[in-house]
Write a structure and sequence with these properties.
This protein has 211 residues and is mostly helical. Helix content is 80%, strand content 0%. The radius of gyration is 48 Å and the shape is elongated.
């Protein structure tokens, strides 16, 4: 049992899914409002809608009235909790709790002679707009800078690859020109050999004609 010298530790901060003070308060408020609403649907008011049944079978109508209130309460509670889950109400209210707690800590650490903060509603529209847009712009600027660096790196790699391919093409063209020159010289030599062979053939024909 904790004593005055050893006080109990403060309660742990609620997790994202554990309702904090405000989330618990809104659930309690809704449950109370729903209970008051259901209580307002008295049997007399319900029976006034069905006078014939109320006169002929009042016990059956009372059972129907009780079942109606039970089903209506269950349906309303289910819809309320569904909305809380779909809209992340508990998480958002817990974030608000953290924000308020952090603000209180900052306020407690502020020196007494520090200038009073400027109320937001007294700021000009440009300052309020800049306060909301500057963080977004900085984030977008960081993303754009990262993309720009990526594009520049890709362009540098592409330019290097193009230079290498150009050098390779120039080497291939040089080798091809050498082959063409070799073929041209080979053609000239073949042509000279053909002329010599043709001359030898004529001489051989002349010798054969003499016989």
């Amino acid at each position: 049992m904790p004593s005055a010298q050893s006080p109990s530790p403060p309660p742990e901060a609620p997790t994202a899914l554990t309702p904090g003070a405000r989330a618990s308060a809104i659930q309690t408020l809704y449950a109370s409002a729903l209970d008051n609403t259901l209580r307002s649907i008295s049997y007399s008011s319900f029976a006034a809608c069905f006078p014939s049944i109320a006169a002929a079978a009042p016990e059956s109508l009372r059972s129907v009235h009780k079942d109606f209130l039970q089903r209506l309460g269950d349906f309303a509670s289910h819809e309320f909790h569904t909305i809380l889950e779909e809209r992340n109400v508990v998480i958002q209210l817990n974030k608000l709790e953290d924000l308020i707690a952090a603000a209180k800590i900052r306020k407690s650490r502020t020196p007494d002679d520090a200038p009073a903060p400027i109320p937001p509603h007294t700021l000009p529209p440009q300052a309020v707009l800049a306060a909301h847009l500057d963080p977004v712009r900085r984030g977008q600027q960081s993303q754009l800078n990262a993309r720009l660096q990526t594009v520049e790196c890709d362009n540098a790699a592409l330019a290097k690859k193009m230079m290498e391919q150009r050098k390779e093409i120039e080497m291939l063209l040089g080798a091809l020109e050498g082959r063409v020159e070799d073929l041209r010289r080979g053609g000239e030599e073949i042509e000279n050999v053909g002329v010599e062979v043709s001359g030898e053939s004529r001489k051989a024909e002349e010798v054969l004609q003499k016989f």
